[in-house]
Inverse folding.
């Protein structure tokens, strides 16, 4: 196996890998990954993407890339062909990426969430001293959804997302995830600055699909006070939505607000002809998992979120 710096590659030499990766996202996750691959191609060809590619007999069998964010590195993508020693290629690429990140001055943390691989990467993460958190990719057939149809409580109003909500939404995320397991997985949740960056990524960038404001809502007091709940939704394939964020303010959790927001998003998707909705949830967040299962979501894949700290 030969490992090359991704900045020495042209995207055309990875085309067969891209085709296999796109198909895996489509079959396993009902997700059109082509827009993301388009961006990856662009950054590879501009020599702007750090990472590595594995070659055997002159053919690419895997690739992975990373990006920097302040004090941490993010493993943005990793894929190895099922046709050629997938476990060995994956472990070698992960090890080389981690070595490169650890050798970068100021990097004290590495995060990775690699959904298509499922839990098969757990031993690799553990061997490289990552802490792992099990997460679930869940899918709901909208025609099988079981809504309760409860009206919004008096004194509260539902608002469709607008970009004016960025700052208030960032504050809500920070509050909602204080001392939450998800803030151990993604440390952006620990500050308003990080939460704002997270929001801008999912609303303005295509990494989590095409943002759908018509199915994204804030719930706030009619007095105009800050929002107490929020749901954000994207389109990830024709007729398939994905909940990218659902959070409720401390003190309001357990009052059915999360379910109400989810039901309004589902109804908005139904009106637009969508057939299914997916989301990811951390398995340790049992209350959320229970809510989604009660609404009809089923787990179609489990995968690891890995965190390495210096």
């Amino acid at each position: 196996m030969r490992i090359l710096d991704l900045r020495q590659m042209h995207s055309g030499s990875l085309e067969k890998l891209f085709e296999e990766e796109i198909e895996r996202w489509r079959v396993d996750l009902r997700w059109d990954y082509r827009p993301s691959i388009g961006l990856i191609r662009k950054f590879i060809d501009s020599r702007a993407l750090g990472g590595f590619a594995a070659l055997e007999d002159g053919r690419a069998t895997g690739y992975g890339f990373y990006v920097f964010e302040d004090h941490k590195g993010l493993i943005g993508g990793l894929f190895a062909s099922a046709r050629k020693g997938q476990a060995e290629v994956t472990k070698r690429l992960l090890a080389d990426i981690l070595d490169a990140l650890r050798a970068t001055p100021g990097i004290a943390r590495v995060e990775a969430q690699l959904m298509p691989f499922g839990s098969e990467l757990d031993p690799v993460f553990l061997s490289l001293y990552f802490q792992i958190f099990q997460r679930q990719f869940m899918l709901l057939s909208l025609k099988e959804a079981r809504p309760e149809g409860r009206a919004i409580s008096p004194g509260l109003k539902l608002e469709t997302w607008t970009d004016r909500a960025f700052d208030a939404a960032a504050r809500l995320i920070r509050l909602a995830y204080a001392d939450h397991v998800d803030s151990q997985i993604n440390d952006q949740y620990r500050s308003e600055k990080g939460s704002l960056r997270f929001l801008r990524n999912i609303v303005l960038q295509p990494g989590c699909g095409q943002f759908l404001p018509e199915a994204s809502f804030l719930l706030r007091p009619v007095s105009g006070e800050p929002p107490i709940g929020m749901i954000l939704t994207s389109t990830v394939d024709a007729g398939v939505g994905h909940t990218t964020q659902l959070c409720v303010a401390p003190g309001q959790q357990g009052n059915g607000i999360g379910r109400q927001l989810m039901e309004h998003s589902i109804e908005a998707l139904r009106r637009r002809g969508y057939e299914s909705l997916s989301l990811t949830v951390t398995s340790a967040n049992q209350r959320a998992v229970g809510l989604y299962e009660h609404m009809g979501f089923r787990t179609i894949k489990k995968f690891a979120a890995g965190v390495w700290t210096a």
Notes: Residues 140-303 form a domain with the Aminopeptidase fold (CATH 3.40.630.30). The two ends are 29 Å apart (CA to CA).
